[in-house]
Amino acid sequence: MSLIKYSKISDYKLIKVLRHFCADMDTTKSTYLLGINRNTINRLYKLFREAIYRSRIETLQAMLFTKEVEFDEAYFGSKRIRGQSGHSQKRSGHMEALSF
Question: I need a surface site. Which of 1, 28, 45, 90 has the fewest CB within 10 A?
């Protein structure tokens, strides 16, 4: 029984393509190394991406139903203000008191 329905590619070659996908190898290099048509590998890569997307969406929906969402500081942007260094970086956005 094949891993993909109605596929003429063997499970061995399919697993090889999946390994190349996981190694972030482009389709032309995978075509050259595996001897499979580029369009076939493009179609398989698309199936893998869609499977990852569907899995991620299901995970996010399950998290929303439990109402437990965890955020990381990385989502809120960097703390470093580019173009400024040292002590002046801490005072950005604040007016300094003028003395006469």
Answer: 1
- Domain locations in the chain? 11-69
Q: Among residues of the chain, what percentage have pLDDT more than 90?
A: 36
Task: Choose among 77, 82, 78, 60: nearest CA to 69.
Answer: 60
**Gyration radius of the chain over CA positions:** 25
Query: Which of 25, 79, 16, 17 minimizes the C-alpha distance to 43?
Result: 17
At a CB cut-off of 8 Å and minimum separation 6, what does 51 contact?
Answer: none
Residue 11 and residue 44 in contact, taking contact as beta carbons nearer than 8 Å = no
Rounded to two decimals, the pTM is 0.59
